[in-house]
Amino acid sequence: xxRPTVVxxxxxxxxxxxxxxxxxQRGDGAIDKVAATKGQVAAIYEDYREIRNAAxxxxxxxxxxxxxxxxxxxxxxGSFAVAQKLNRTGEQExxxxxxxxxxxPRFTQYPLWLFAVxxxxxxxxxxxxxxxxxxxxxxxxxxxSPEALATTKIPDLxxxxxxxxxxxxxxxxxxxxxxxxxxxxxxARVLTDPDQASSAGITEDAFVRQMxxxxxxxxxLDGVTFSQTWAAEKVRYVLRTSDGGxxxxxxxxxxxxYIVPTTRKITWPEGSPQQALLEDGIQGSxxxxxxxxxxxxxxxxxxxAPRAIGQYGGVVQGELGFDGQSVEDDPPAPDEE
Amino acid sequence: xxxxIGGWALIVLGLVCxxxxxxxxxxxxxDGRRTTGPHAVDVDGSxxxxxxxxxxxxxxxxxxxxxxxxxxxVFVGLGNSVDVTNYVDEVQHVEVTSFGTPWxxxxxxVDGEQPTVRGAPTAxxxxxxxxxxxxxxxxxxxxxxEPVSLAVVAVGSSNLSGLKITLAYGIKGGFYKxxxxxxxxxxxxxxxxxxxxxxxxxxxxxxxxxxxxxxxVVYVYVDDDGVEHExxxxxxxxxxxxVVAEEIIEPEPEPEPEPEPEPEPEPxxxxVDDDGVEHExxxxxxxxxxxxxxxxxDEEGDER
Lengths: 337, 304
Known about the structure:
The complex is a heterodimer.
Chain A: H1 3-19, E1 24-25, E2 33-34, H2 38-58, H3 70-85, E3 98-103, E4 106-107, E5 112-120, E6 125-133, E7 141-144, E8 147-149, H4 180-192, H5 197-200, H6 206-219, E9 225-232, E10 237-240, E11 246-260, H7 273-277, E12 285-299, E13 307-323
Antiparallel strand pairs in A: 2-4, 3-5, 5-6, 6-7, 6-8, 9-11, 10-11, 11-12, 12-13
Chain B: H1 2-28, E1 33-40, E2 47-50, E3 57-58, E4 61-67, E5 73-80, H2 81-87, E6 93-100, E7 104-110, E8 127-134, E9 136-142, E10 148-154, E11 164-170, H3 174-197, E12 216-217, E13 219-222, E14 228-231, H4 233-237, E15 248-249, E16 269-272, E17 278-281, H5 283-289, E18 298-299, E19 302-303
Helix pairs in contact in B: 1-3
């Protein structure tokens, strides 16, 4: 080795050894925080699994309120209520939780939230979950959990310089045909009236067609007046995708209303959630069934139309309305008693 | 020339490092930190926090001891500023807006609707480091590379009146790092000195590409008798002599050592019997024969 090289190497080595971990001031001065560390995510899922299994064992949805909230809790509570009424025991999730992907954006303030993909091998689906911590003293709660087929490709997300997914506002429509909130509202309009798909700029995907079929079947009940409305709740969880678009977790409230004359009676199959909520069916009155549906909406970059790539939902409320004596009698239909 | 500049640069660099190391070791002392306090802090309420951005240093080792009178329960914790800010949001508290060493805090009172924080600080999972105790609590940590805030919270229904804080800050192993920097700097300065002077200690090995030309210019004048006299550069510079011819004198190569002379071959003696067969004789056998032989052939390398 040549002399200057030796000397400079020795100097650099000495300075390097002495200089390691020398105090310095933070460069950017940004006040922000990664939503959760890897260890915290593991703890979140461990708690969630433990409490969910306890709830299943007790057939009591109350413990779930410590790990779930909002529509997810409402949907699960509904299913637990159904299970209680039907005296049906649930099965605990004994296997390991297969969390295949975790995205923890940076936030400058609360609430914090994270996105995780959990593979359910038994049902061959992937759960696309969002956990949120509203304040520093609140626990992490599951707030969204739409599901997609295991084969469904989840769009790649865009990451910042530190490898964190980028959360954007629901009203941000940069680089997209519409913002996440606008897409959610348009999607709800299309679900209410599928003919509006093209004018609303929404792709008529499998979920839209499935819900349209259900509505058409219910509307075909002879002598029964059926109406269905959809409304999107405020969108809170949106991630930027690598194509310049966004991935939005949207909660939709669906309201089905049946007006049934006294000469007709609507019942639901034994063991169904609707049957558990409206045990005696609907006869001579109106009946309402409310559903929550959570969908994962992909709003592509550019001018392409948004489409749903995953959904999860269930009935959360059933109630009988006014006396239907005044409803005109019609001959019974095959779906009626 | 380059060697000289490089040498000086190393000397300066080494001395700067050595001085830094010395200052570090002296300032921090054998425990690698400076301690200040206890300092009384006037806090009427139950919460004292540092504002986001008040702590800007990274890799500084800090030790904080908080003490309150009458064995009151107290908590001290360090957390990300986003967490701490949310934790004390809408809570009446005292905020340290800036801090200068050794102890120059700027305080301000922040109004809030709540007299104290929601939830026990010990129940939260986002503290980077925390401690709680009766009458006092302490923590020791190295400041991470993220925005952090320090929080002192009175646990339960107590308050922080009579709060005293002792603070120590420094570098983990700072004393020894200072000594290392001192020694390293001295080593670098020594290397620079050697490089500048061109001492042979560094001249082992290959040829230095930065080294001055090895050829030496010698000025001479020849007198009338044809005898050469060497001139100094000052004499040449004085203009007294005109340079009429320049001859570069290559340094004489070191004479190679002469090879050791090969040892003379030992003479060998033979006698030939009547049948013409040769028999080798040793020196002793030859002496025993006395004059009973005749050297018939003394050809070089073939003596008999």
